[in-house]
Amino acid sequence: MTGIIPVGAFLFEHILISNSTAITGPEAYARQVSFLANLPLVFFLELFGIWVPIAYHALYGFYIWYRGEGNTGEYPWSGNWMYTAQRWTGAIAFIYIVWHTYTMRFTGTDLHDNPMASFGKVAAEVRNPWLMAFYIVGLIAASWHFAYGIWLFSAKWGIVSGDKAQKRLLNLCLAFFLLLSVVGLTSLYTFHSRFQDAPGVNGNIVDIRHATTAPGAQ
Question: Over the stretch 50-106, which tens digit does the pLDDT of each residue have?
């Protein structure tokens, strides 16, 4: 259940809402970061709405993985491969989310205090080709894990029953995976290659403050 709410809801918001604002430019992204940073009791929202559920979901997932045995060699049907992919993408997604949260939230410029630095901070990280590759793999893994996890949850708990209904839901979940991946990859491309001449993207926080409080002043 934690894989759908709140962890899945966090991924939905992070990829399709917050990060997608970067596509329209650094100012729109900064406004979204500022909005999230100024939510009431934001620390407790992050603690109990993101960090604790992700930790629980990951630890429980690793425990299930540890107790299970792979059988794709003996029974190489598509469902087995998809279930195995669910395990591996979960591990990759966990590493990705921990890294991304740590670097964005707890290192360098505090984006809660300086939201205008947010676009430049992400852009600086993904300009490293190794980190860019890591972000791409992590994004796709997280998108698959969430989208296919919706199908697993619905089938396991009897929310959707019957072969035809489950097949239709699977197709919808695969389409949702593609949507998450395309929007996420477009956002990454934006951070990496677009708006590079915008104030603060290649500069420091002083440049950004000047750009926002005193246009034209250098």
Answer: 888 888 888 888 887 777 655 444 444 566 777 788 889 999 999 999 999 899 988
Contact 163, 215 (CB under 8 A): no
CB 54 within 8 A of CB 90: no
pTM of the entire structure?
Answer: 0.80
Structural domain includes residue 186: yes
Q: How far apart are alpha carbons 121 and 210 in whole angstroms?
A: 17
Determine, yes or no, domain membership for 56. Answer: yes
Q: What are the residue ranges of helices labelled H in 75-128? A: 78-106, 118-126
Nearest alpha-carbon partner for 174 in 82, 66, 101, 65: 82
Q: Domain containing 128 — which CATH number?
A: 1.20.1300.10
* Residue owning tokens 């929202």: 45
Residues 143, 180 contacting (CB under 8 angstroms): yes
- H-helix or E-strand spanning residue 60: helix 52-67
The total of other beta-carbon atoms located within 10 Å of residue 115's CB is 21
Instruction: Tell me the CA end-to-end span of the chain in Å, nearest whole number.
Output: 52
In a domain? residue 65: yes
CA–CA distance, 109 with 171 (Å, rounded to integer): 42
